[in-house]
């Protein structure tokens, strides 16, 4: 009995599947050239104004906001945003920010530090990624998650 509980407790956490796209809604709204930056989660008003695109805050798709530490990914916020935007029929234009504090401290200790107290979305340095291979892997994982085919 104890062994069974231990095995269950040690099982790796599973990541929920990525959101999928509605092809009909995508085609209908693709002809629209109006959108918001950002719609601030108020998609109903943005849609009423005629928008079909949204560009979320840059920090939402920032490397360190998703890969909290090397190899530890948390897509919960981006999944929630993508699901909500797609449910409202919006196309999404994201900016992937290449900043993760744990990466930046590897080679950018000489850059000026920007301190924004209490705001974890902003990392202190804004240099190019120190570990380009790890960043490349992150971008591939992010794009694969949201490419619309429902497969990570």
TrEMBL record:
InterPro entries: GH
Protein name per its UniProtKB record: Glycoside hydrolase family 42 N-terminal domain-containing protein
């Amino acid at each position: 009995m104890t062994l069974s509980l231990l095995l269950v407790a040690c099982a790796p956490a599973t990541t929920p599947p990525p959101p999928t796209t509605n092809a009909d809604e995508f085609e209908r709204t693709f002809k629209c050239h109006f959108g918001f930056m950002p719609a601030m989660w108020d998609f109903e008003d943005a849609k009423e104004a005629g928008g079909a695109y949204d560009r979320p805050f840059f920090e939402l798709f920032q490397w360190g906001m998703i890969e909290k530490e090397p190899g530890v990914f948390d897509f919960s916020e981006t999944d929630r945003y993508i699901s909500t935007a797609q449910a409202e029929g919006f196309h999404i234009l994201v900016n992937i920010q290449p900043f993760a504090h744990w990466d930046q401290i590897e080679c950018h200790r000489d850059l000026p530090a920007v301190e924004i107290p209490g705001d974890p979305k902003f990392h202190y340095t804004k240099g190019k990624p120190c570990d380009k291979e790890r960043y490349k892997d992150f971008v591939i994982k992010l794009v694969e998650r949201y490419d619309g085919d429902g497969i990570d």
